[in-house]
Amino acid sequence: MSKPKIKPLKKILIANRGEIALRIIRTCREMGIKTVSVFSTADRESLHVKFADEAVCIGPPPSKDSYLSMAKIMATAEVTGSDAIHPGYGFLAENAKFATICGEYGVKFIGPTPSQISSMGDKITAKETMKKAGVPVIPGSEGLMTDVNEGKKLAAEMGYPVILKATAGGGGKGMRIVWEEKEMENALNTARQEAGAAFGNDGMYMEKYIEEPRHIEIQVAGDQYGKACHLSERDCSIQRRHQKLLEESPSPFVTQELREKMGKAAIAACNAISYEGVGTVEFLVDKHRNFYFMEMNTRIQVEHCVTEEVINFDLIKEQIKIAMGEPISGKNYFPTMHAIECRVNAEDPHNDFRPSPGKITTLHTPGGHGVRIDSHIYDGYQIPPYYDSMIAKIICTAQTRIEAIHTMERALGEYVIEGVKTTIPFHQALMRDKNFRDGNFNTSFIQTFKW
């Protein structure tokens, strides 16, 4: 390994909003690093604006005019003398062009290199890279599908059901399950239209659909000197329309043998692209515990807190240290506790999870041993209607899974948010459900969940 070249960071601009921006500010303050928050006019009263050392308004509420405006963010970095940008998650966090621009202006992008982002951002390229690295992948098309007849022929060879996915996709958009041949043409057309509208790219590929899968992801970290490690797994199988609602670590489904195999595969994925930064390698695991590479997120994730709690590790600090050129230990980590995270969204769970923006009139947050709240809301805060509806994450940690569930039940009962609808009642019902408590669930669980 070459001799480390440490370049301390003095001021970090946070190109994000809400709870993740506040989360980054807290770690920066502990490290003695100044922070700059950017904000839209809709977020003027957000805590990430109040708690940063400096705050700059960069535009009106629409993301394209504020949090996605590379020109405005770079101009703010220059004016404030920021020597690094932390993108958080979402927005520009996995945008290779933005990472490239940061480098051209001498501002450190806290994340992987543009080429690493690109290699994992395109699903077809990522899959081919993983195959060459010996990481198990789901059977599917070799490249982009050209027409419906090709899709029907390939599906017949693999066997139904199959799943169509957008090559530039994410968040469940541009994705359709096809159970039989007669559904193929309509599914492909609608998926293409959705992908084109969401990503500006309607390229599609096909995979064998894994029935009754678990969504298991491995947290990884890699430094600038070619060393990588994993920090064990998170189970993200409780989802609604491919959007995660609850995450936990360790997974009640994963054995120690499988944990070690998946950890090795995740490290192989990192080594294949010489990965630099903190990221997550995501797998689908079938009911026989066979696992297949799904995608790699080249950023910090919403659910990173779960990993932090079970191994006592600050992942944001690790990101910043890697960006400064510090080497990682290379040690692989395994959970010593059990943690569960519930995402609290401003949504009405009794009305098809319809968004519920508005003013919080009463707020009481839970506390006590084993309870962590990551949130940017406060009594009187106005939740804007323009962004993701997540307003808080509640993470409960204990020695065992059932103890973590009991702690979560107690904490959810203490959490009072009035003025808007939230998903707290949904999570309370989930904690009481026998199948969930027994660890008997997969990614289709919510479709049949009665509460």
Low-confidence segments: none
CATH topology title of the largest domain: D-amino Acid Aminotransferase, Chain A, domain 1
Sheet with the most strands?
Answer: 8 strands, antiparallel
**Number of alpha- plus pi-helical segments:** 15
**The top level CATH class name of the largest domain:** Alpha Beta
Q: Could you state the CATH homologous superfamily of the largest domain? A: ATP-grasp fold, B domain
Number of domains: 3
DSSP helix fraction: 25-40%
Strand content: 25-35%
- What is the structural class? alpha+beta
Task: Write a structural description.
The protein has three domains: 100 residues, Rossmann fold (3-Layer(aba) Sandwich); 70 residues, Dna Ligase, domain 1 (2-Layer Sandwich), CATH 3.30.1490; 235 residues, ATP-grasp fold, B domain (D-amino Acid Aminotransferase, Chain A, domain 1), CATH 3.30.470.20. The chain is 33% helix and 26% strand. The protein is built from 15 helices and 22 strands. Strand 15 and strand 16 form a beta hairpin. Helix 4 packs antiparallel against helix 5. The longest helix is centred in the middle third of the chain and has 17 residues. The protein is globular. The N and C termini lie far apart (55 Å).
